[in-house]
Design goal:
The chain folds into two domains: about 120 residues, no CATH class; about 160 residues, no CATH class. The protein starts with a helix and ends with a helix. α4 crosses α6, α11 packs antiparallel against α13 and α11 packs across α14. The protein has about 300 residues and is mostly helical.
């Protein structure tokens, strides 16, 4: 899904976005269609998504999805035409460019630069956000794509938990759908809930580790500081991403079907997904020792 949206945005930018400044109404419509497709799988949904579009356009290491902001990229791309004109020292054209195309930019210093980079200009137009410490955890290439997406939403605290829905007047019971004893928040589901804590211990025991951390960020920080080889760290990331996905799925089963899968079923599902995914992506750079460790899981 993310790849499809990025592909559409990139094609628009590469072709039309380098020819002329796109009307604001057009860029807003394109953004609305992409947003609707990402969150609802259709092109005409007007409801807001779980995360605002501007945040999705942040780099992945800033907590976003790395989507292109069409309007800003369009300005940067058309700016290259202005730069090319200015290099010819045609005073009439340069004056027009400075008065027209460059109004949206902070300065025209880039016009005199001997080299022009659309990427650099676009980066300068974007508002820089602080980096997040968990982006490598989320976008680990071994993880199943839908697991990454759910994990990303969980770390942003944007999953539609009962507590979040209750705040906007949806539903009359904010308690956890699984344990029923505490208000259902992302922090509770991952991993303060006794059910999810037990599942976490089962997964870590399967991998041969014991951790006493009780929330998702703490568990991630522990894995990040893990001093073993990078491959094993990625396997742990993959399993934990699968665990977050399965717990959220179990929560939805509890809400809609009044059924909670067993902890052993969740463990077996994670084991299957992790093995199957990584076996298909194992490269030649993985050592024999790590190969043997993984096959023994």
């Amino acid at each position: 899904m993310i790849g499809n949206v990025n592909s559409v945005l990139m094609n628009i930018c590469v072709y039309w976005g380098q020819i002329f400044l796109l009307p604001k109404r057009i860029t807003q419509k394109i953004t609305a269609i992409c947003r609707s497709f990402l969150w609802f799988g259709t092109y005409d949904e007007s409801r807001p998504g779980s995360v605002v579009w501007d945040h999705l356009c942040n780099h992945k290491d800033q907590g976003g999805l790395g989507f292109r902001n069409i309007s800003l990229w369009n300005q940067a791309a058309v700016g290259k035409l202005a730069w090319a004109i200015s290099q010819k020292q045609d005073n009439l054209w340069v004056k027009w460019v400075k008065n027209s195309i460059t109004e949206a930019l902070a300065s025209t210093q880039w016009l005199t630069d001997p080299n022009y980079s659309i990427k650099n200009i676009y980066g300068g137009l974007c508002t820089q956000q602080p980096k997040v410490h968990w982006h490598r955890f989320v976008w680990n290439r071994f993880s199943v794509p839908k697991h990454r997406f759910t994990l990303w939403l969980a770390l942003l605290d944007r999953l539609k938990t009962r507590a979040r829905l209750f705040k906007i007047g949806v539903g009359d019971d904010p308690s956890c759908a699984i344990c029923g004893s505490v208000v259902e928040t992302c922090s509770h589901l991952f991993f303060e809930c006794t059910f999810s804590t037990d599942c976490l211990q089962l997964v870590l025991n399967w991998l041969g580790y014991t951790v006493t951390k009780t929330n998702l960020t703490q568990v991630f920080m522990w894995v990040r500081r893990y001093r073993k080889k990078e491959f094993r760290r990625k396997v742990i990331f993959t399993a934990l991403a699968g665990l977050v996905y399965q717990i959220w799925k179990a929560r939805n089963d509890a809400v809609w079907n009044h059924h909670v899968p067993t902890k052993q079923f969740i463990l077996k599902t994670i084991q299957f997904d992790t093995r199957h995914r990584i076996q298909n992506l194992l490269g030649k750079t993985v050592s024999r020792i790590d190969h043997d460790w993984f096959r023994a899981l």
